[in-house]
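USER: Please consider what follows.
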Amino acid sequence: MRPRSILVASLVAVLLCAGVAAPVAAQGSPTVDGAQLQTATADAGAGADAETDADACSFPVELTDASGETLRLEERPERVTTTNPSAAQTMWEIGGREQVVGVTRYASYLEGAEERRDVSSEFGVSIEKVQGTQPDLVLVPNSTDSDQLAKLRRVGLPVFHLPRAHTIEDIADKTTTIGRLTGNCEGAAETNAWMNERVEESQLSVAADERPTILYPLGSGYVAAGDTFISEMLSVAGAQNVAARNHTGYPQLSDEVVLQLDPKYLLITDRDTDIVNEEPYSLTTAGRENNTIHVDVQWVNQPAPRSVVYTVENVSAQLQADRTAEGAATATPATTAPATEDGDDDNGTATSNETPGFGPVVATVALIATALVARARGGGRE
């Protein structure tokens, strides 16, 4: 088991620095269609005409970031440093891997990440290490606190502060933005199209009132609730996030509230965790029936295209396996058909790994506790 004190401190930090800024999204299954996911890619030169695409992705480029600051890049950046794992994952995905010179420790699962400089500090990133990469562009997550952001800018680094992702559409928009900034517009458009196609193919088809309920506990009563990209991924996969009924962000719920919500499933990111046997979760339907859905931590917690695909595919596939097993058990009561995850591959996904610009993934998973610390200090969920 992971030390609960680390989890509590990390999550409280997340709540303080990451807040909820956008209005609560409507409950139910969000619309995930080609038009919705590709909106921003059209602005980045994702049309059919190749010459127009090239012009739209030319330099210089000038974009305004989430903090309201405008960054102008005269030329395509050849040295890009990422201070959050989701930006690194996105760069690998859209074909910009060779441009990346700096990453954080939480991007270590990416193939070849060990060849880049680790710019991590105990909390967040080291300004000196980031400077040492001599970057043409620094991609910074929205969860970075204002003090560290100011320090990065104070030393003259070309910083772009990425917006927080609340939805899958936000993730597609961020992918498009990163593609535009790094001269990988075509790769970004292909990645968004791939993400959209895989999500549509893997969604569990189930009526709204029949959606299985699920809860993602982060430790010490904290959960992923509504108005988060995690909650939307669960909804798109065909589940109902019970914490999203009356809560947003990453709140700490009392035992009584958890028991009232009574999820049928718990989403876990560590196969060795025994949280399902701990109160109050052990007293819920999920605990009594030992119903868990497993997805590796980097896919659930990082708002990037591959994370969306792997999370939606895994959750929907495991829910479907249980529905099939339950149907078989109902038809033949003498047969016991427990939930299964057979079909997961080494990357934690139930389907194939073809994708533009990524290559094989070495899934060396960060511990839950360190992932949560990263989210609070500039990594993890970003």
User: Anything to note?
Assistant: Confidence is low (pLDDT under 50) at residues 1-50, 330-379. The longest helix spans residues 305-331. The first strand starts at residue 61 and ends at 64.
